[in-house]
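> Could you send the DNA repair exonuclease SbcCD nuclease subunit prediction when you get a chance?

Sure thing. Input:
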Amino acid sequence: MKFSGHANDWAGLAKTILYQRGLRLVSYSGALIVIRFLHSSDLHLGKPFGRFDEDVRAALKVTRQSIVSRLGSLAQERQASHVLLAGDTFDAETPPPRVIRQMLNDVSKYPDVTWVILPGNHDSLAATELWRVLWRDAPKNLLLATEAEAITLNAQTVLLPAPCTARDPGRDLTAWMENHDTGDMIRIGLAHGSIRDFRSSDDIGDTNGGVIPPDRSTSAKLDYLAIGDWHGRIEVSPNTWYSGTPEPDSFKEHRTDGCNLVEISAHGQPAKVEEVPLGQLVWRHLDIDLTETDDFSSIFHDQIPDVHQRQHYLFEVVMNGRQSLGHRQDAIDLFKKVAPDFLHFEVDMSGLSILPDTTDLDKIDTTGALRHAADVLAQEAEGGDKIAASALARLFSYAEGEA
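Output:
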């Protein structure tokens, strides 16, 4: 091969040499990246979603099972050589055989991508049958990080995994990383658990007790520490991240659900982390605090997605404040109208106090025993009795239906 001395020729030669050494070389803004990988976790394949109706459960399960293919497609599209799954790939220690097989089949569809699965607290090493099946049936491009020992990802990069030995190991499984010398190789840690002294935040995860030191990446000289357990993406430090689950599974507010695309050029160099959205469904929680003069319909419509997007939404509305019986019934009628647009729609009106007025009570009855009962319930409801408020609302709804 003849070289003109141009930069492109030297870049091509460098790429050829690195490929021969088992490296994947990509270019980003003129910089040569020795490794580019996806960091994900908490797929929870096989999660039953028992609180939902059967059709919603089915949609949630199918969407969750498709995460592996979406990660594989993204890895190919962005030229990532590896996908690192930081624990809880499976929701339980005994997932259905179909869930395991479909995951393995999806991994094998992307033979140019190397996958690494770490045992988490939901699928710990205590699940001996699960890991026996995975070892037996794993495709060639799947690595199982079941030992606390270094795994070579390429000629310049080593992975230091901390597999969960049990659902609650009760100790810092990342400690061994400090004393494992790898020279000038890029060092990537892979762990599952909670950061010590960091549990005051919301949605810390499933593991009982924080055991991973917040400075582990520094003490172990890691270029990147990929952690799982929290279902929301969190940046602990510039090179220590919880990726969060790629597909949302609760109404808690998080950063955009997806995965991290990480690029590292050399040991000691800053990792470049890009947050990539990946979720297909949206879980939305909406708090509405009303006064008796608020126009609920306008407030509500300003907060919900376009009608053509609603099929991808699970929507939870919590109402607080005070409204008249008529306005409360208007809200209920509106909910009934829009609910079928959504994959799932639920409302909690227990915090909404009733402000009865004569016009509303007259719709129940103007005289007689029924009106007397309505007056008594109205008085008790104004005093904060939620049972009375609920009964009065039902009575009003019945009267409206009879009108």
